[in-house]
């Protein structure tokens, strides 16, 4: 038996139950991972509330790091004793141990500890596909990145600096503004004190930005479009404030023939060769020290409800992990 979080209904943090579950041997193509650390991400909230539906009862969590304890028939990607990390479905990372599709596991370099591994995979791979696969960014490009002091945001600020991008961030407090600047953002706008559209236009001399990376959703969508220069690209990759409501394609035309995309990590990592290439890119900048993954909050797995409360209240910065 192992301890794990299970939910039989969707709703608030109270629907997550800390229970004993039976963990059988890994099946064909699977590996048993004993977690040392588990990542907490806003997408977990979407599954908990039912915004992203899944069959119930179900587990939660898409990111973790640990040691391979057993492998099933046909597994070639990892072996017993390997230090591994992963990000992606199926849900179920909120557990002391679990059986995972081995094709999703990546051997963790010795220079990267388990906490960093658990904190960086989903968020770091997200920045990797946003900056290297979604839009062909180049040095000197000016981009807007919402929630710049969050887990994804702080990695994005650092990676943007490595690439020579001019990243304009948004954040909700002076403390978070300072944190994003410290991590490499060129400018950061406190959206509780300033109109971010007006400030972006001021910073860019009225031109607007080449790309907006928006994980907020409903509350920032229209403003994000207004920040783009003609032929700019809107990248909507999250719904922290709620899903974007339906809109007319004329909104893109009237603002200068804009592009828009709604990418997901799972699409970009669906092929093993892409997953490995993206991980190699991420591991490289982390091992070199060019991108550091700040674990700002740690909670025991049994206290995951409080972790969700703090995450939704925007009390967290950087990355958050659960300790099984």
From TrEMBL:
SMART domains, alphabetized: PKS_ER (SM00829)
A Pfam match: ADH_N
Enoyl reductase (ER) domain mapped to chain residues: 11-322
UniProt EC number: 1.6.5.5
Entry GO MF terms: mRNA 3'-UTR AU-rich region binding; NADPH binding; quinone reductase (NADPH) activity; zinc ion binding
Enzyme class: oxidoreductase
Keywords assigned: NADP, Oxidoreductase
UniProt superkingdom: Bacteria
GO cellular component terms listed in the entry, alphabetical order: cytosol
Presence of keyword Oxidoreductase: yes
Listed NCBIfam families: PRK10754.1
Protein name in the entry: NADPH:quinone reductase
Organism of provenance: Pseudoduganella ginsengisoli
């Amino acid at each position: 038996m192992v301890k794990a979080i299970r939910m039989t209904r969707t709703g608030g943090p109270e629907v997550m139950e800390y229970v004993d579950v039976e963990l059988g041997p890994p099946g064909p193509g699977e590996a048993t991972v004993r977690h040392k650390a588990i990542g907490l991400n806003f997408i977990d909230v979407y599954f908990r509330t039912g915004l992203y539906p899944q069959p119930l009862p179900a587990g939660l969590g898409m990111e973790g790091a640990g040691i391979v304890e057993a492998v099933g028939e046909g597994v070639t990607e990892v072996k017993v004793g390997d230090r591994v990390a992963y990000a992606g479905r199926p849900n179920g990372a909120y557990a002391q141990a679990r059986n995972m599709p081995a094709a999703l596991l990546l051997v963790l370099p010795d220079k990267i500890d388990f906490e960093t591994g658990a904190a960086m995979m989903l968020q770091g791979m997200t920045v990797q596909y946003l900056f290297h696969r979604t839009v062909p960014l180049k040095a000197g490009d000016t981009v807007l990145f919402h929630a710049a002091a969050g887990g994804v945001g702080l990695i994005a600020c650092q990676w943007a600096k490595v690439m020579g991008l001019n990243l304009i961030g948004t954040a909700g407090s002076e403390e978070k503004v300072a944190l994003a600047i410290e991590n490499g953002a060129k400018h950061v706008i406190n959206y509780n004190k300033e109109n971010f559209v007006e400030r972006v236009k001021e910073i860019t001399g009225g031109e607007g930005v080449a790309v907006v990376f928006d994980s907020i959703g409903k509350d920032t969508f229209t403003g994000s479009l207004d920040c783009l220069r003609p032929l700019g690209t809107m990248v909507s990759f999250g719904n922290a404030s709620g899903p974007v409501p339906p809109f007319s394609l004329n909104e893109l035309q009237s603002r200068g023939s804009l592009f828009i995309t709604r990418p997901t990590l799972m699409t970009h990592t669906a092929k093993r060769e892409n997953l490995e290439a993206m991980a190699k890119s991420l591991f490289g900048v982390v091992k070199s020290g060019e991108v550091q993954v700040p674990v700002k909050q740690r909670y025991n797995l049994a206290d995951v409800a409080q972790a969700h409360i703090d995450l939704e209240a925007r009390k967290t910065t950087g990355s958050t992990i659960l300790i099984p």
